[in-house]
Amino acid sequence: MASNIASRKEPINEFAAKLYEIARKWQEKWMKVGIFEAEPDENKPKFFITAAFPYPNSPLHLGHSRTYTITDVYARYMRMRGYNVLFPMGFHYTGTPILAMAESIAKGDHELIDLMINVYDVPPEDIEKLKDPLSLARYFHNDAKNAMIESGYSIDWRREFTTIDEEFKRFIIWQFTKLKEKGLVKKGTHPVGWCPNHNMPVGMHDTKGDVEPEIGEFTLILFELERDLYLPAATLRPETVFGVTNIWVNPNAEYVIVNIDGRRYIVSKRAAFKLRFQRDSIVEERTIKGEELLGKRARNPATGKLVPVLPAEFVDPETASGVVMSVPAHAPYDYVALEELKREKPDLLRKLGIDPEELAPIPLIRVKGYGEIPAKDIVERMGIKSQKEKDLLDEATKKLYSDEYHNGIVREDIIEHVYKDMPEPYRSFAVAPVKAWIVGKSVSEAREATTKWLSALGYEDRMYEILNRPVYCRCGTEIVVKVLRDQWFIDYGNPEWKKLVYELLDNMRIVPDEIREEFLKTVDWLHERAAARTRGLGTELPWAKGWIIESLSDSTIYMAFYTVVHKIRKYGLKPEQLTVEFWDYVLLGKGKAKDVAEKTGIKEEIIKELRRDFDYWYPLDSRHSGRDLVPNHLTFFLFNHAAIFPREKWPRQIVVNGFVLLEGKKMSKSLRNIIPLRRALRVYGVDTVRATLLAAAEILQDANFSEELAKSVMDRLRRFENYAKLAVEAESGETIADRWLLSVLQQRVDAVTKALDRLRTRAATITVLYEMSGDVAKYLELRNGKPGPALREYVENWAKMLAPIAPHIAEEVWHEVLGKDSFISVETWPTIDPKKRDAQVELLVSYVDRLVDDVKSILRVYKGEAKSLVVAVAKPDSWQIARIVASYVSRGGQLRDAIRAVINSGVPGKEAAQIVRKLYEFLRSVDEAMLALIESVQEFDEKEAVAKLKDYISRKTGIQKVEVYYVDEAGDKIPQQKLRQVIPLRPAILIA
C-alpha cells in the first residue's frame, strides 16, 4: 500500500483536482490583497507565532507539513479570535547539509540523483543546477516556499530571509557579541563530535539522518598484563571493579600495542585511531590478534587478583577500547557468556589452564527484588540462554543497571576483595578509602568514589565515545570524539545560566505538558558545545576568522529578526550600518536613538520605528517544532533567550508535535516512500492533506497518513460543500429540527474553541469534519430532507470553524455559495449564544433516537411484516426520579445514596428502590452528554416527545402507524408484564 500511495503523481479523483484549483485561486487572492501581512496595531492584542525554518537541501515532504500545518491552524484560529497575528518564515542555509548534498550530486552519486528525480520529483534537466551549493539552496528554497504557499499557510512573506543574508549575519554577530560579553562563549578544552574527513566539529544538522552525536565518558581501568603493559578495560560502571572475574576480548579482532602519553596499552585497532583525536601523543608499536591474548592473566588493580583473558564475540572492537571487564554477578551479558563458555567450551578452559570455579560471580551490590547474584536472577527470570539473544540481554542489562543505580547499596563484604598487599606507596591508601567512600554507599556515590580512588592509585584513565554510534557525517565518514583545545564553545553547562532557563520553563506553557520533563532533562545534562565549524555556509565568528558559527547556534533567537527585517529592507539600510549599538537599541532598548543615528547614519525616526516594532511583537507567543528538536534547537532557543533578553521578552509557549508515518511505516529514503509535499497537494487536494494530517493523531502522537483516511476526509469536505448549497435553498418555517440544530451548534462552537485553545487539533478536526457533518445529516432526516432556516446559520458558523483547518474550501463556500464579500480567513470566530442552547429539544431528539435504535434491534429478529408500533412511556411526574439518579450516576455516586435521595423526595420506599435500581443500571450505560441533558431539563414529557416526532420515527423504522401512551393509559395495548418494566427513559415497545 505504501508503495502505491508514494508512487501516485496525478490527482486521485476529480474532486481532488477541484480542491487543488480552488486552493490556488484563493492563495492568489490572499497574496494580492496581503491579508496576512501584519503591522503593529495598538488597538488589537498581538500574537507572534513561528515554526522552525527549513533547510533547503531537498523538497519539503509530508513530515515537514505536519509542523507547519499545526502552526498555520493555530495562527489562523488566533487571527479569527481577534488577535493581530504575525506568522513569518525564513530559510536556514547555515552548516553542511547543503554543502554535502551538492558535493554528492557533483560527484555523480547515482543513488542520490535517482532519489532526486524519481522520489523528489526534480526534473532531470535541473540536476545540473544542484551541483553548486548556493544554486542548490536557492532551488530548494524556492521549491519549499512554493510548497508553503500552495499549502495555504498564512505567512507574511515580506519578512522572508536566509541565514546567509548579510543583514542576518550582522544580527548573529550581535548575538554572539552579547554571549561573549556575558562570559557564555569562551575558549576551552572540551570533547566534541568530529568528522575525521572534514576535520571539523559536527552536530545534529551535519550528520546523516540528523542524529545528534551523544558523547559519553568511559572509565578505563588499567589491568596490568605485564610490567608497564596494560589492558584498559572500558566501563561505565567502575564501582563493579571489585567483582571482576575475567577480561573479555574479541578473539577475531585486531588489537595494537600503543604508547599513549608514555604509557603502554593494548587496545583495538579502531580504539587506537579514535584515541588519536583525544590524546597528544600516540605511537603504535605493533599489531596483535585478539586470540593471542587468550589465557593470559592481568592484575585487577582493585583486588590484586590475576584474572584470565577470555574470548567473547559480543565485545565490539569499534566501541571504546575494545577491552571489557567481566562482572557476572551484575552484568547479564557477562553472566550468560561465562555460563555458555563453561557449558559449551570446557575444553578451551582446560587448555587455557582456567578452573571454572574461579569464574564464579562475586556479589557486590544489594538491591531490592534480587537475590545474591542479581544478573543470574534477571537472566533466569527472562529465560535467556544464549549471547545471541541480544535484544533480551539489552533489555535485561538496562533494567538491572537502572534498578541498581537507583536502589542499589554496596555490600560490606567487598572489603574482603580489596588489594591489601598493594605495592607502596599506595598500601596505606588501599582499604581505608574503600571503607569510608564506597562500602554501604549508593551505587551513584560509589561510582564516583571508585573512579577517584583508582585515579589516585594511578590505575584509571578516560576515553570519550559516541554513545549512539555509529553516527555518520553527511560525507559518509563515521563520527568520532575529539578533544578540542583552545576552541570557542557555548557554555551551556554554566549553572547560573541553567537557573535562568529553569525559571523560564517554570513560567511558560509547554504543549503538550508531558514534554516538559524532556526539556528539564535536556537542560540538566546539557554541557559545553562547540560554537563554530571550519566548513559550511553561515556567519563567521567576529573574533576568530575562518570559523563559521554552526547551524544550531545561529538559529536560536532569529525570531527577533523577523520583527524588523522587512523594515530594514524598506528603508534600504546597509549591512555595515547594523552595528552592535544598533541592535542593542532596537532589541534591548539600550542607549539613545540619537546617538545610534549619529554613529550609523540611519535616521533617528527609523531607528525608533524599528524599536517600536520589536517592542510590539516581542515576546514570541508560540514556537512550533518537531519532537526531535527538543534535545537541541528548542532547548538552545530557551538558553539564548534567557541569556540575552530581559524576562518580559522571554518566549511564552513551545508547541511540540510528533512525526508522520505513511500507511503505518516510517518515511525513509531507503523505503523510497517519501512523498514530496507539492506532489501530495496535487494528488489529494490541499485541504485534504491539511485535514488528514490533523485528523490522524493528537499533537505528540505520530500521525499516520493513509489513503483511506485521506479519502474519508475528502468525502467530508465534499459533503460540507453540498450541505452549504442546500442551505441557500432553505424553506421558511422553524421546526423542532431547527431548534435542535442551532442548539447543537452552540456545543460544537464550545468544543472546537476549547480544543484549539489547547492545541488538540485532532479533536477540533474530527468535530468540524465528522460530527458537524453528522449534525446536518441528522437535521435533514428530522426535516424529511427539506432544509429549513437554521441550516444557513449553521453552515456559516461551520465554514468559519473549518477555515483554520481547510481554509480554501471554506473560503470558496463563503464567497461562491453563501455570497459573502469578506475573506473568511479574517472573519470573527463564532461565539456561543446561550439563548439558542435548548437542552429540552436536544433531549427530545436523543430520547427519540434511542427509541428508534431499540425498535430497530427488535425488528432485526421480528418475524413478519411490522405494521404498527405501540409505545408506553413513564408519566411526566416521575421525571424528577430520573434527574436525581442521573446526578448520582454522573458523579460516580452509590446506588444506596440514590435510593435514599429519591425516597427523601417523596417516592414510597419499596417503589423507589425498584425504580432507582433499574434506572441506575440503565443510566450507567448512557454517555456523559446525555446524563448532563437529563440533569439540566426540569420537566420532560416522553409521550409528547414521541408524538412530536412520529413521522421521523416512521421514516427511520419503516413502520407507518405509531401510537404512544402513558403507561397507565396503555390498557390492553401492551402486555401488563411489559408495562411493569417501564421506568423513565425506558418505555415499553410492542410491534405488530
Describe what you observe in this structure.
The protein is α/β, with parallel strands linked by helices. The protein is 45% helix and 15% strand. It has a 6-stranded mixed sheet. Strands 2-1-22-23-18 form a 5-stranded parallel sheet, with helices on one face. α20 (593-600) packs across α21 (604-617), α25 runs antiparallel to α28 and α28 runs antiparallel to α29 (807-817). The longest helix is centred in the last third of the chain and has 23 residues, at 839-861. The radius of gyration is 36 Å and the shape is globular. The model has no long low-confidence stretch (mean pLDDT 93).
Characteristic key phrases:
992 residues, alpha/beta, six-stranded mixed β-sheet, five-stranded parallel β-sheet, 37 helices, 29 strands
Which secondary structure elements does this structure contain, and how are they paired or packed?
Layout: H1 2-7, H2 14-33, E1 46-51, H3 62-80, E2 84-86, H4 97-106, H5 110-118, H6 133-150, H7 166-181, E3 185-195, E4 200-201, E5 215-226, E6 229-235, E7 246-249, E8 254-260, E9 263-268, H8 269-275, E10 282-289, E11 297-299, E12 306-311, E13 323-326, H9 332-344, H10 346-351, E14 365-366, H11 374-381, H12 390-407, E15 409-410, H13 431-438, H14 443-457, E16 460-466, E17 480-490, H15 495-506, E18 509-511, H16 516-525, E19 529-530, E20 532-533, E21 548-549, H17 559-562, H18 565-570, H19 580-588, H20 593-600, H21 604-617, E22 622-626, H22 630-644, E23 653-657, E24 660-662, E25 665-666, H23 677-684, H24 686-695, E26 703-705, H25 707-727, H26 736-757, H27 761-782, H28 790-802, H29 807-817, H30 839-861, E27 868-873, H31 879-890, H32 895-904, H33 909-923, H34 928-936, H35 942-948, H36 950-957, E28 961-966, H37 976-979, E29 988-991
Parallel strand pairs: 1-2, 1-22, 6-9, 7-12, 18-23, 22-23, 24-26, 27-28
Antiparallel strand pairs: 3-4, 3-17, 5-6, 5-16, 7-13, 8-9, 8-10, 11-12, 14-15, 17-19, 20-21, 24-25, 27-29
